[in-house]
Amino acid sequence: MSETTGGTARITESETRSGIFAGSDPYALARAWMAEAEKTEPNDPTAVALATADAGGLPNVRMVLLKEVEESLSEGGFVFYTNFESAKGGELAENPQAAMVMHWKSLRRQVRVRGPVERVGDAQADAYYASRAYKSRIGAWASAQSRPLSSRASLMADVAGYAARYPINPPRPPHWGGFRIRPVEMEFWADGEFRLHNRFRWRREAPGALAWAVQRLNP
Ligand SMILES: Cc1cc2nc3c(=O)[nH]c(=O)nc-3n(C[C@H](O)[C@H](O)[C@H](O)COP(=O)(O)O)c2cc1C
Ligand SMILES: Cc1ncc(COP(=O)(O)O)c(C=O)c1O
C-alpha cells in the first residue's frame, strides 16, 4: 500500500500504475485519453452514454457530448449541455445523480464516471451557448426536447419564428444549460488479450473526501 499526493488530493493505492494508467490526477488522465481518442475516432470522440434514473429508480440512458473535463486536481467535473425540460432534465431534477461511460472502439478503452450532478453556473453556460453554431442556438429555442411533436413542419416553423425574433446573438434559453457530474468514482479500463483486461477504479476514500483510493480490479 502506498500513499502519494496528487496536487491537493491524497491517493492510496495497492499497486503502482504505469503506462496509460499512470498519473495522480484522474481528470488529467481522462483528458489525456480523450485527446488520444480525438486522433483515432472517426467522429464524436467526446460522446458519452449518460445514465440517469427517475424518482422510482427506473434507469434511462442516452448519448450526449461531453464539453468539458474541468481543470482541477481534486474537485473537477464532467460537463454536458442539454434541455432542462427534457426527459433527462426531469430525471436529474428528481434524482440529481448520474453515471456515464465513454467507449472508444479505436482505442479499445472505456472510462466510467459516477456521482452527484449539479447545474453549471449561468456565466459558464452562456459562454458555451454563445460558442455554438447560430442554427444550433436557434434550435435550442425551437425544440421542446423529449416532448411529442405533431410534425417536422411545425418544428421548422418554430425554427423560422425564433430566427426572425433573434436574427443575431440569441440569448441562452432559460430551459437550456449545462450539468456537471462530480465524480465519486471513476474507472479506467483498457482491453487486454483473451479478456484479461486492465481496470483501475478511483474512489473517494470517504463520502465528501478529496482523497482517492485507487484499486486494480479483476477484468
Ligand atoms: C453522438 C450523440 C451526441 C448527442 N449529444 C447530445 C447533447 O450533448 N445534448 C443533448 O441534449 N442531446 C444530445 N444528443 C441527443 C440525445 O441522445 C437524446 O436524444 C436527447 O438529449 C433526448 O434525451 P432524453 O429524452 O433522454 O432527455 C446526442 C445524440 C448523439 C447520438
Ligand atoms: C440536441 C443536442 N443538443 C446539444 C448537443 C451538444 O452538442 P453541440 O453543443 O456541439 O451542438 C447535441 C449534440 O449532438 C445535440 O444533439
From TrEMBL:
What InterPro entries does this protein map onto? Pyridox_Oxase, Pyridox_Oxase_CS, Pyridox_Oxase_N, Pyridoxamine_oxidase_dimer_C, Split_barrel_FMN-bd
List keywords of the entry alphabetically.
Flavoprotein, FMN, Oxidoreductase, Pyridoxine biosynthesis
Q: Which cofactor does it need?
A: FMN
Give the SUPFAM superfamilies listed for this entry: FMN-binding split barrel
User: Would I find RNA-binding among this entry's keywords?
Assistant: no
> Which Gene3D superfamilies does the UniProt record give?
Electron Transport, Fmn-binding Protein, Chain A (2.30.110.10)
Transmembrane segments annotated in the record for this chain: none
Q: What is this protein called?
A: Pyridoxine/pyridoxamine 5'-phosphate oxidase
Species: Paralimibaculum aggregatum
